[in-house]
Design brief:
With 191 residues, the protein is α+β, with helices and mostly antiparallel strands. The protein is built from 9 helices and 5 strands, in the order E-E-E-H-E-E-H-H-H-H-H-H-H-H. The chain has a 5-stranded mixed barrel.
């Protein structure tokens, strides 16, 4: 099993990246949030998971060990394949995903394009006892309803769910629980 990998980024395309390991280029599927920040020539170190299928070997890479572990946890859920797990981690941060699971909020997960209500409920039920609190008491707090309103407002303005979620994550933790203030700060992310 390939645990982690590092090298020079040769190419970035819609299906992932090609990372040069000496004279060998390795194709790796990565979360969209990471892919949009990369440029050819960057040095990159990723934690990986190799998915073996009858007709393919696909390497999935993540910038943190926690994301890689969440990917493996998501794959353990019946009906969740590697592409769905990668889509979830492309839209939701591990912190948001953990909060949604611990506070039993499948609607947060079902915001991910291609993830339906049934699948998100399966994820919450299957991972309820497997997802721990990562050293912080506030992770038990439910995903804010205000953040849901901000996310809805951003998507209604034409931003994709991925863009809206990234803008939400850019809001400082000490921001007051006010929809207007949080929306204004999220919009500043796009400025």
């Amino acid at each position: 099993m390939i645990d982690n990998i590092s090298g020079k980024l040769a190419r970035v395309d819609k299906d992932g990246i090609v990372l040069m390991l000496g004279t060998i280029g390795v194709r790796i599927s990565i979360p969209e949030t990471l892919r949009v920040r990369l440029n050819p020539g960057d040095h990159l170190e990723l934690f990986t998971n190799l998915v073996v299928r009858e007709d393919s070997l696909t390497l999935f890479g993540f910038p943190t060990l926690e994301e890689c572990q969440f990917f493996k946890l998501l794959l353990s859920v019946s009906g969740v394949g590697p592409r769905t797990a990668l889509a979830i981690l492309s839209v939701l941060s591990t912190e948001t995903l953990r909060r949604a699971i611990l506070s039993e909020q499948p609607e947060v997960i079902s915001r991910v394009p291609g993830v339906g209500k049934m699948t998100s409920q399966k994820i919450v039920i299957a991972l309820q006892n497997k997802v721990g609190i990562a050293g912080s008491e506030d992770l038990m707090a439910p995903a804010s309803e205000m953040d849901g309103e901000v996310l809805s407002a951003l998507t209604s303005l034409g931003y994709s769910v991925i863009e809206a979620q990234t803008a939400l994550q850019s809001i400082p933790r000490d921001t007051p629980e006010d929809v207007e203030i949080r929306l204004r700060l999220a919009l500043q992310y796009f400025a």
